[in-house]
Every structure is written in structure tokens, then in C-alpha cells.
# Entry
Amino acid sequence: MKIILVGMPGSGKSTVGKQLSSRLNLPLIDLDTEIERAAGQEIKTIFAEKGEDYFRALESQTLQRVLSSNDAFILATGGGAPCFHNGMEIINQHGISIFLDVPTDELVARVVSDNSRPLLAAADKEELLLKLNVIRAKRLDCYEKAKVMIFGSDIDDVVANLPKT
# Structure
């Protein structure tokens, strides 16, 4: 079984992934960590030096490589991974996609002091909220193609909504 967590930056994909990993005794793979390992650079450096288009191509290649494994695991994607280069279609072909749908005001509270997210650089909370609302509007159709939708990021809701095997 492959469980792939998708959603906005700050929606709890990594946190829920760790909890699911523990509960289901499956390894957790963090796509951003895999990208940084493949590139030998942090994501913010890739963005700064090579731009978003280069990053999205690398992200797509890494996503496909990780999902091609025959192993069972939980994958925490980056917020944009499903929405570029047919990412959600690839994800849905290889496993159970779960969209963690978290309100933007909660996302702001979670990411306001995180400087590692290049697309979310903002002068203040109001600018950050505006950026998150714009990103959400662009990506929501993609996220809603997930096989499972969870409102919030409560681990018990996620586990309760997993397909029975």
C-alpha cells in the first residue's frame, strides 16, 4: 500500500505522515527531502539559483522515481507536487491520495515564521494570507482529485477514512 498525502503548504502532510508511519508501521518518505538529496541543495537554493520551472521538473522526476518503487510507504508531498506535470494523475495511479484540506487562516498560523518556503515569502500576515488564498485557488481543482478528502489534519480522521484492505 502507498499512501500519498497532498495539500497546501502547512496543511500537516509531514506531521500526519509521521503519525501514520507510526500507526501503520510503514516508512515515511518526504518528497522535499528526496528532492534535496537528489539535487544536493536545499529547495530554497534551487528556487533562487535555477527557478521554479527547473524545480518543478526535478520534483516531477523525483515523484515518479519514488512512486515507481514496489515497496509500501507513506509519502508526504510538497504542496505543488500534485499540481504540475500531471502529478495528481501519477499519484492516483500508484496509491491512495489523501487531500488534507486546512483553512487558509490556520495555514497562515502554521507557516508565518517558516522561512524555508520560497513561494510564501511575505512581508506580513496579510500578505501571506493573500498568497495562500491565490495558491489555494489555483490548486484546489487538482487537490480535489484525491481519492480521499480530509477536512483538517487530524490523524484519527485520516486513519478512519483509509480504504479497508
About this structure: The two ends are 9 Å apart (CA to CA).
